[in-house]
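Tutorial, part two.
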Amino acid sequence: MKIICIGLNYRKHAIELGWTVPSEPVVFLKPDSSILKNNKPFFLPDFSSDIQYEVEVVIKISKLGKGISAKFAPRYFDEVTLGIDITARDLQTSLKSAGMPWELSKCFDGAAPLGNFVPVSGIKNMTDLDFRLEINDKVVQKSNTSDMIFGFNEIVEYASKFFTLKTGDLIFTGTPPGVGQLHKNDNLVAYLSDEPLLNFMIK
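Running the prediction step on this input gives:
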């Protein structure tokens, strides 16, 4: 099982980080050891002083596919949830400025908390889906999937050009603006529409 992540997929998020808005999907991978399930707490690592949250809509691949056309992409994912792409922002900035890969800033253990999955069949319109992240009962990120630069079907098409998609693979589809630093004892709750799918603590 692999975790495919799409970076800078919300225009305002790219702008808030001072990055160029991409003309095609920005792809990186996380290892399965980064997944944090069952609302287990995330422990702040000692290699960074600026660990940040990024809430994302996550789709789960439901069958094997390669070279998938966007029009057929909905056949290849049947569940959706919310996840947090936890990022060591200081490490990312340092690696990026040195022209080096920045996987270390996003791929460490526990850097992908994952919520409960719900069936896509129960969602009226995947392209008009509200989601938000609250920290300590305060909304810090709020958006709609209509704001994505590259939609779910485009992402599946693009990723499957390079990777064979397998049953159980996950795709993190990008974060909206509003990212920020995490602190000890923060409580993160992520909502898809008004349904809480993820609820965990920072330790």
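The chain has three helices and 15 strands. In part three we will examine how such features are distributed along the chain.
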